[in-house]
Amino acid sequence: MENTPVQKRPAEAAAEESTGVVRLPQKKFFRQRAHSNIFSDHHLDYPVSPDRMDWSKNYPKHFVPKDPEAAAASSLTQDSGKKIEFADIGCGYGGLLVALATVYPETLMLGMEIRVKVEEYVNQKILALRNNHPGSYDNVSILRMNAMKFLPNFFEKHQLSKLFFLFPDPHFKKRKHKARIITSTLLAEYAYVLRPGGIIYTISDVKDLHLWMVKHLDAHPLFVRIPDEELVDDPAVEHVRNATEEGQKVERNKGDKYLACYRRVTDEE
Amino acid sequence: MPVLPFSHILHHPTKDQVILAYGEHIQVVDTKTGVIVSSTADLEEREAGGLQVQPLTNTPDVEKQNKARVQQIAISNDGAFLATAADDKVMKIWNTESWKCLGTRTLVRRSNALQFTNDGSHVVTADKFGDIYNMERDIPDVVEPVKAEKTTEKTDGEGEGEGEGEDEDEGEQPILGHVSMATDLELTKDNKYIITADRDEHIRVSQFPKGHNIETYCLGHTGFVTEVRVLPGASNQYLISGAGDATVRVWEFLKGKEVQTFNVREALGLSPLDSESEEDELTVYSLAISESKNHIAVVIEKESKVLILQWDPATAKVEVFKILEVQGHALAADYDRSGKLWVSSVIEEGTTGLLSVYDEEYNLQEDLAKYANTFGSKTVDSLPDLYSTEELRKRTTDWRDLKKAREEKEAARRANDPDAAPTKKRRTNKNSRKIPEPAPAASTADATMQE
């Protein structure tokens, strides 16, 4: 099967054994078509509600398994008490998460990606990084998920402080616009999981899509654009621009990058 | 030949009437006498067994009828207006005195739920694509889409103009939306909140009409949600929901808290599932509530049993009050203003039991059902499947299983016919690490020969 770990050459395996350093997975073995139909019924595992999610597989240093037997075998006696605060929707090959993991070492962050092979790649990469840098990267993980449908199954109201939508699928055709990740109706769900004061980061190399996201966010009563000068002090912004694989590709091709960040506000009485 | 069942039953809030929908028509029955008083179609002449047809109070306007099946009906709180939505996406507003259509309007997508706001000025609809619209009731009598733009997932044609900045943002905007089929909606009694349900097991509580403020979610169902209704009681804080997971659940909805899970299979005394891993597909199809008695009639898909639950607002619990056995399969139910229960059934042959009426003590009142059973609805060649749940069920397979099955199929094909060329559809792209399998020599030769 294509997404199983690549067979290592004996010399490579021996080198890993002696040094204890695991080689990072190679992207070329995990390529998958860039688009996915988000309206179809994918076979996904999601909890009925956030409180029933067992995060121990994703963050073994922070969560005790829900299953009593597995809990007994765990090195933890209790949860670290932390909850996920950053979510990267459509995280792709995970460049942003890997970069932010060490910038915000105390913050749990999660990537959601619908493509199976890409998820597998990021997963292996995180495991390798954890192995090679003990004590780091325990705060980062990925799930294969359709975030447009199941975000409230994972996150409670106002749980998140940052949501990232970096280089999302442009869905150029007009009849596909409903599949775009930023729509008026989906923004209500993002506002639900995002706490007041939390930030949505968007970036795209496709100007049309950027304008579209800006138009919808500007029009939404619960989001206010953060002026560019205020973004200078935000340590996440640099990585939003440069850490993702897509962002680097745009850089190589000397393309433009359009950034727009919004703060979650409230209009409730 | 069978007679079309009544797909919907709705009580008139201020008169002793129930409104019955069947096929593309609606009929009104006097709940004191059982007589059909109004109909949008002429009554069929049938073997009456001594019964006299009573004259209709309206004149059916046969010319204006359309052919689309009524899928949703709702009535305003004052009883003055009825809204219907049919499977051709046309919504109609009716005057409930004259039974004349006041206006029609083509919705963007098929409606799965309709409800009037308290003041009757707006109709809220939940559609197949998950969008919820809050529309003015007084609609012009023209058939025109809510939005000018065409939104079809099926036609795969190119050539639609792009990037002109005028797209789906034109026209009426939804007040909220699910990325999944919306299955039901309910406005709270004070109209401050709107509760919407979807095929992906979610129940969402949002502010109304500012639907962008999501209050909470009621999560617990493990199958598509079919119906959500606010339960009677002084506090109006409890919600009841039915779903395709064989349960009815009670929620403290503003807190998103489940307070009771009620297992319908157990309550009906049905045999448990054969295997434990099997998902229970027993589906709660619809709920009818009697505010005066705090009773809930639970219609279960393709079942002859109708479950009557007693709701106790003090303990916030439902329990079995009674199980009714109807003829055929129960399809729709509602309590009328005086607390009598009207149940419609799918009857394969004949007309007896098309409609069953029960008094306040759940004794069958055959006199009240006989007119509708004798003259109501219409004869058809065969019965359509009127339960709209098939599209709600998910038939997903793990992609690994699909892949395995495909590989096995391919292997079997190659085994039977060693000369067969690899399936074209599975062409590997040039970036794939998979080494393309060498095409069998024979087929290469074939290809050259054909040239």
Strand arrangement within the widest β-sheet of chain B reads 5-6-7-8-12
CATH architecture of the domain at 82-264 in chain A: 3-Layer(aba) Sandwich
Structural class of chain B: mainly beta
Mean pLDDT of chain A: 90
CATH superfamily of the largest domain in chain B: YVTN repeat-like/Quinoprotein amine dehydrogenase
Range of helix content of chain B: under 10%
**What global shape of chain A is seen?**
globular
The ordered string of helix (H) and strand (E) elements of chain A is HHEHEHEHEHEHEHHHE
Q: Mean of residue pLDDT of chain B? A: 85
Which terms summarize this structure?
heterodimer, A: 269 residues, alpha/beta, Rossmann fold, seven-stranded mixed beta sheet, 7 strands, globular, disordered N terminus, B: 451 residues, mainly beta, Methylamine Dehydrogenase, Chain H, 2 domains, four-stranded antiparallel beta sheet, 4 helices, disordered C terminus, WD40_repeat_CS (chain B), WD40_rpt (chain B), WD repeat (chain B), WD40/YVTN_repeat-like_dom_sf (chain B), nucleus (chain B)
Architecture overview:
The complex is a heterodimer of chains A (269) and B (451). Chain A is of the alpha/beta class. Chain A has a domain at 82-264: Rossmann fold, CATH 3.40.50. Chain A has ten helices and seven strands. Chain A has helices spanning 10-19, 68-73, 95-103, 116-132, 147-154, 184-193, 207-219, 228-231, 235-242, 245-252; strands spanning 84-89, 108-113, 140-144, 160-166, 194-204, 223-225, 258-264. Chain A has a seven-stranded mixed sheet with strand order 3-2-1-4-5-7-6, with helices on both faces. In chain A, helix 6 links the parallel strand 4 (160-166) and strand 5 (194-204). The longest helix of chain A has 17 residues, at 116-132. The radius of gyration of chain A is 19 Å and the shape is globular. In chain A, 39% of the residues are buried. Residues 1-6 of chain A have low confidence and may be disordered. Chain B has 451 residues and is mainly beta. Chain B has helices at 264-268, 366-375, 399-416, 441-450; strands at residues 8-11, 17-22, 25-30, 36-39, 70-75, 81-86, 90-95, 101-106, 111-116, 122-127, 131-136, 141-145, 176-177, 182-187, 193-198, 203-207, 214-217, 225-230, 238-243, 247-252, 257-263, 284-290, 295-300, 305-312, 317-325, 329-335, 341-346, 355-358. In chain B, 43% of the residues are buried. Mean pLDDT of chain B is 85; it is low at 143-167, 424-428 and 430-451. At the A-B interface, helix 5 and helix 6 of A face strand 13, strand 16, strand 17 and helix 3 of B.
